[in-house]
Design brief:
Blueprint: H1 14-17, E1 23-29, E2 33-37, E3 43-47, H2 50-54, H3 58-61, H4 72-83, E4 91-97, E5 107-114, E6 117-124, H5 137-144, H6 150-165, E7 169-175, E8 181-188, E9 199-200, H7 207-215, E10 218-221, E11 228-232, E12 250-252, H8 254-263, E13 267-275, E14 278-287, H9 295-337, H10 348-358, E15 363-368, E16 371-376, H11 381-391, E17 400-402, H12 405-408, E18 421-426, E19 434-439, E20 444-449, E21 458-459, E22 462-465, E23 473-478, H13 487-508, H14 518-548, H15 554-577, E24 583-584, H16 585-597, E25 604-608, E26 610-613, H17 615-634, E27 644-651, E28 657-664, H18 677-690, E29 693-699, E30 702-709, E31 714-718, E32 743-747, H19 751-763, E33 768-772, H20 775-784, E34 789-793, E35 795-796, E36 799-800, H21 802-811, E37 815-819, H22 825-828, E38 836-838, H23 843-858
Helix pairs in contact: 5-9, 6-9, 9-10, 9-13, 13-14, 15-16, 15-17, 16-17, 17-18, 20-21
């Protein structure tokens, strides 16, 4: 999606013809200035616009110590950050740096090493802007961790990055193996055409640009029509250009500027997505008017992209890990089934079924001991023998896969309807025997952003590529290909190949020519051993690498930690709602069971009384209840369809509280083989932190646990009548499904709160949600669209939402006020019947208020 466009068939060597580097050396954009110093901190290069930002004569600065222009305090900060640079591609950032003591203007600064120079980039710091944008990244990443697929992850990421940066269009652009790219996710402003699903030829991004994307993760163009400022001198004393590869201010090639102009884009930003050091894709952002992002926001976007890469890698690893577990189970299954000493051909149906359970295919054929075997849709015996001779030319010690068999083996074009792609597993060395999986042709349509076959247009300098001028969608029908074999499928095939080699070895032991084949068996053993050792070494390497990033088991770890944090959060909400006063133990148990079990919560019976616990004990009990509930759902009474839980709350003779937990009717229970952290919480947290007691018994009929909480943590014990509301046997069921319909307006100036509110109202049945951050945006949305209901944040920084409320009243649209101040009395006079929702709010409280507003509207 950048720089140059050329047909894949055009034979032009980009590295030779594209003399000018992909980025324009020697110029910077106008939203900041640049100073480069040598090891002695003598100024070597400056951008000419340093005069505009610092009021200094750019040319007179050359050759002078930088201390003549910056204060000692500023230099101390800069030198400290230089010391922290740990690689040639590292960049350190400073915010709100005071360069000179007498100046009121502060600057944001980026520092990196370029050859023998230290490059300092400066942008004005605006004190009125928030500087804690990076604090938004954590909740953004928390939302990403809930994704269960790559597509869902990318769509969430595009939407959140758009909310953070405000660009008109944010795309997730993924590179294929042939280096072409596809827009796989997108978030766009209203009335902007979608690019999702469009493909771009590999030549749109030359190799120089790809390498630059890999090294420097973020590039921004604030105004494609803006002027750029030259670096002086143009060359150093030895004729060197200042390399701006890691610069955030660097200007870009005029070819790329023209490319964006042809698209109608006036500002853009790209943030690289790396996976294990390789360029996986890009966040590509477009804006249709000039847009300058503060250094703070760009830094947050940079951090978000790095954390996204981390979550992407873990999600991908989870898929691989699941496939490896399935393959291991298949290995064990095959080894048990094929232990009878017969040959592979005697067990061909079982092998075919096993392979197909892990690797989808349309047919399986084999050449074993001079015999052709087949199942499903495959080439005939004569064609397969030609394929075997072709496979004999490939490496014999690993699997071979292609989804374009006709391109590498031309005779296969005659039967492309039966075998467009193959995955071959060699199962012996001499003679070579094979088990081959086939896939049929899939005719698919690829949507290109312009015709990829259009010849290159040569520029005025000869073999110099010119930018794409047409972006109209162009559809290509692809023939002669099967569905591609994924990396996980190829890896599974390699593991199964070793399994079959082991089977061959076992079977060969029963053959009369055992002594003749002794060397062959030894070679097979060595090959298998070598394979397994490599697997073990790779696994250790992966564990070490992931551990250094706290990521070896981030999916499970995140679920467990998230659950415990949410348990604490729910407990915290309950006690803060009571202004940190003692809170109900019964309500705590209800909340934990409802949050964890949902529909199963009616199988939990709470008996006895209630106790008001001091806040100091509340968090401890919340974690214990959470762990008990989690274990019950995984292994105990609520892991099947018949089990129940009975919880009894009583008062002890000395004024404390006893709490019993009984599970009945579930599967048989066994004590865990080892004590994990969850078990430690259940058994030791109450005795250790509260001085109470805990007795946990793993009875065969179900888990039993008895706890006591000392009277020091109990304000009072409350007797509960059997028919009172407090004696409800299970928490209130959710009423969100189907409550709403049609579009909903959310007016909220906090991005994270707005996105959470969006999710809640979508769960309640809204067809769409329009999020606005200001009164002006909300009024415009109301003029353009009819809403069924609205959620209005009362306080929006320097304005309130009352003008929006007036507009909604005029149109007869019900709405709910949301406030974080806990007091809506000021609104009651003007809008006496409007429900008021206190922050922070959860799904149930929001549902209550929305339902009340709708009922008032219907009355």
């Amino acid at each position: 999606m950048t720089d140059n466009t050329v047909s894949p068939d055009t034979k032009i060597d980009l590295t030779n013809c594209d003399r000018e580097p992909i980025h324009l050396l020697g110029h910077v954009q106008q939203f900041g200035c640049l100073i480069a110093v040598n090891a002695d901190w003598i100024v070597c290069y400056v951008s000419r616009n340093v005069t505009d930002f610092l009021g200094l004569d750019a040319e007179e600065m050359i050759g002078n110590p930088i201390r003549d222009y910056f204060s000692e305090a500023a230099l101390h900060e800069l030198r400290g950050r230089v010391q922290q640079l740990d690689s040639e591609d590292a960049v350190e950032r400073l915010f709100g740096l005071q360069l000179r003591e007498a100046d009121e203007q502060a600057f944001n600064a980026g520092v990196h090493i370029s050859g023998r120079n230290i490059v300092i980039e400066l942008e004005p710091h605006e004190a009125s802007h928030r500087t804690d944008y990076t604090s938004l990244v954590r909740p953004m990443i928390d939302r990403l961790r809930k994704a269960r697929s790559i597509d869902q992850l990318c769509q969430l990421a595009a939407r959140q990055l758009k909310a953070l940066t405000g660009f008109d269009r944010v795309m997730v652009y993924r590179f294929a193996e042939d280096q072409s790219g596809e827009v796989i996710a997108e978030s766009v402003s209203p009335n902007i055409d979608s690019f999702k699903g469009l493909r771009y030829p590999a030549t749109d991004i030359p190799q120089q640009a790809r390498e630059l994307y890999r090294r420097n993760l973020l590039r921004i163009i604030s105004d494609v029509n803006g002027e750029v400022s030259p670096i002086i001198p143009a060359r150093g004393p030895e004729g060197d250009l200042l390399d701006l590869s890691m610069s955030g201010l660097r200007a870009v090639s005029p070819i790329h500027i023209e490319y964006l102009q042809n698209m109608g884009v006036e500002a853009s930003m790209s943030v690289s997505i790396l996976r294990r050091g390789k360029l996986w894709g890009l966040f590509a952002c477009h804006h249709y008017s000039p847009r300058v992002l503060s250094y703070d926001v760009r830094s947050a976007a940079d951090l978000f992209a790095q954390m996204f890469s981390f979550v992407l890698d873990q999600l991908s690893n989870d898929v691989v890990h699941e496939q490896q577990e399935r393959t291991q189970r298949l290995h064990d299954q095959l080894m048990s089934q094929l232990a009878g000493g017969q040959s592979i051909k005697d067990h061909f149906p079982a092998i075919t079924d096993a392979l197909s359970s892990v690797i989808p295919n349309d047919g399986v054929a084999a050449w074993v001991d001079g015999e052709f075997l087949s199942s499903g849709t495959t080439p005939d015996a004569a064609a397969f023998m030609e394929i075997v001779r072709f496979l004999n030319t490939t490496a014999g010690s690993r699997v071979y896969a292609t989804e374009k068999l006709g391109e590498v083996h031309p005779p296969a074009k005659a039967y492309v309807d039966r075998a467009a792609g193959l995955l071959a597993l060699p199962v012996s060395r001499v003679p070579r025997d094979y088990i081959v999986l086939f896939r049929q042709e899939i005719t698919k349509k690829v949507n290109w952003a312009g015709n990829p076959e259009k010849p290159a247009t040569l520029g005025p300098n000869g073999a110099r590529l010119t930018p794409r001028k047409s972006f109209e969608a162009w559809q290509e029908t692809v023939h002669g290909q099967s569905a591609p074999w994924t990396d996980t499928e190829v890896s599974a095939a390699e593991q199964l190949r070793v399994t079959l080699l082991e089977v061959v070895l076992r079977m060969s032991e029963t053959v009369s020519q055992e002594r003749i084949r002794a060397n062959e068996r030894q070679e097979l053993l060595i090959a298998e051993l070598n394979h397994r050792v490599r697997n073990i070494l790779n696994l250790i390497s992966g564990v070490v690498a992931q551990s250094t990033q706290d990521a070896r088991s981030v999916s499970d770890y995140a679920k467990v930690v998230s659950g415990r944090i949410q348990a604490l959060a729910r407990a915290h909400d309950q006690i803060t709602e009571k202004n940190w006063a003692p809170s109900s133990l019964r309500a705590l148990i209800f909340t934990e069971l409802d949050a964890y079990f949902g529909p199963k919560s009616n199988r939990a019976i709470i008996q006895g009384g209630d106790a008001l616990l001091e806040p100091a004990a509340f968090s401890t009990l919340a974690l214990v209840m959470h762990e008990l509930a989690t274990n019950s759902a995984k292994y105990g009474a609520l892991s099947d369809s018949s089990g129940k839980i009975e919880v009894t709350i009583d008062q002890t003779p000395n004024g404390g509280v006893s709490l019993t937990w009984r599970e009945r009717g579930g599967p048989p229970v066994q004590a865990p083989a080892r004590q994990g952290f969850g078990s430690t919480i259940i058994e030791k947290s109450i005795p250790y932190e509260l001085g109470g007691s805990a007795d946990v018994r793993f009875q065969l009929t179900g888990l039993e646990a008895d706890f006591t909480v000392p009277n020091a943590f109990v304000q009072s014990f409350i007797e509960v009548e059997e028919d009172s509301p407090e004696a409800a046997r299970h928490p209130k069921a959710s009423r969100t499904d189907g409550l709403l319909s049609g579009p909903v307006l959310v007016l909220e100036d906090n991005m994270i709160i707005a996105m959470n509110a969006e999710g809640l109202v979508m769960e309640a049945g809204a067809s769409s949600v329009s999020i606005c951050a200001s009164v002006e945006q909300a009024l415009e949305a109301i003029r353009e669209q009819d809403f069924t209901i609205a959620l209005l944040d009362v306080n929006l920084g320097k304005e309130t939402s009352e003008p929006v409320a007036d507009a909604l009243v005029e149109r007869g649209v019900p709405f709910v006020f949301a406030t974080g101040y806990g007091d809506g009395s000021a609104l009651a006079a003007r809008f006496p019947n409007v429900p008021i929702l206190s922050k922070p709010y959860r799904g149930e409280t929001l549902t209550d208020k929305l339902e009340a507003a709708l009922q008032l509207a219907r009355a």
